[in-house]
Write a structure and sequence with these properties.
This protein is mainly α and 263 residues long. 61% of the residues lie in helices and 8% in strands. The chain has one domain. The strands form three sheets. A two-stranded parallel sheet has the order 1-4. Strand 5 and strand 6 form a beta hairpin. Helix 1 crosses helix 2. The longest helix has 26 residues.
């Protein structure tokens, strides 16, 4: 059992507040962009072109992340004070929303520029899951996204009054820790799989299937609001991810194994 007494607020300068949450998220985004540029270059994309679109993809991801969180917590957090939906610096980013928001931006930009979308998604996959792993450290520091209260054997309690947990001194299931370990594991697999001569898009589908399966099972330890049939928003999105990725993996694999020969 572990108690954390770190102030989520690093410093105040006038009306400006620097928080660990935003600092860690920015570091995660920077690492994700760096690795994506490296992989995209390896696949024949222009480094300048990737840097040009990075800000739009990140912005779309942040909007999607906040939107998913607000929709998930509208009735219990935002309905009486809707302006709080704009307080992104207070935490509250749904990673699934970031994935979908960024994916929409990448799809539109690829279509407009005539890029090979499946190959670009493959290039994005390693950096994306690594950024997801790094970003969850923000949750550990601030107390955001902790799971249900637990009596052991492993739990995290918070002592600082600025922590985001419902109650100080209570040990919570460290869901972000489980996600960090799982995401790093997925990253290592993806990093090895990228060396294989797979069809474009298959690496991203493998990432999506692994990440969806992980989020579905880890969410059972969460304290997220139940949406329907005893499952959270995260689990329903994970089911959608599996429903899309697994049949697509089978279809791409079979097409690669048995290519159509034109007469």
């Amino acid at each position: 059992m572990l108690t954390i007494n770190i102030d989520p607020i690093i410093l105040h300068i006038g009306h400006f507040t620097l928080r660990w949450y935003s600092l860690v998220v920015m570091a995660a985004v920077a690492v994700g962009i760096w690795l994506t540029v490296r992989e995209a270059e390896r696949k024949g994309f222009s480094k300048t072109g990737i840097f040009d679109i990075a800000s739009w993809v990140v912005l779309s991801g942040l909007v999607g992340a906040r939107l998913f969180h607000v929709l998930d917590h509208w009735s219990d957090k935002f309905v009486l004070d809707p302006i709080r939906a704009l307080y992104i610096w207070d935490g509250g980013l749904a990673i699934w929303g970031a994935v979908f928001g960024g994916l929409i931006a990448v799809t539109l930009i690829s279509w407009k520029r005539g890029w090979r979308l499946p190959a670009l998604l493959d290039a994005i996959s390693p950096g994306l899951v690594l950024a997801q792993a790094i970003g969850r450290f923000a949750c550990i520091i601030t107390g955001d996204a902790m799971g249900k209260p637990t009596a052991g054997p492993f739990g995290i309690a918070y002592a600082n009054p600025n922590a985001m947990v419902p109650e100080l001194g209570v040990y919570y299931t460290p869901m972000p820790v489980y996600e960090i370990l799982a995401n790093f594991g997925i990253f290592l697999l993806i990093w090895q799989f990228r060396k294989r001569r797979w069809s474009d898009g298959l690496l991203f589908l493998v990432y999506l299937s692994l990440y969806s399966a992980m989020r579905f099972f880890v969410a059972f330890t969460s304290s997220y609001r139940i949406i329907a049939f005893g499952m959270t928003q995260s689990q329903w999105v994970a089911i959608l991810g599996l429903a899309v990725s697994i049949p697509s993996i089978i279809r791409v694999y079979m097409r690669q194994r048995n290519p159509v020969v034109l007469q």
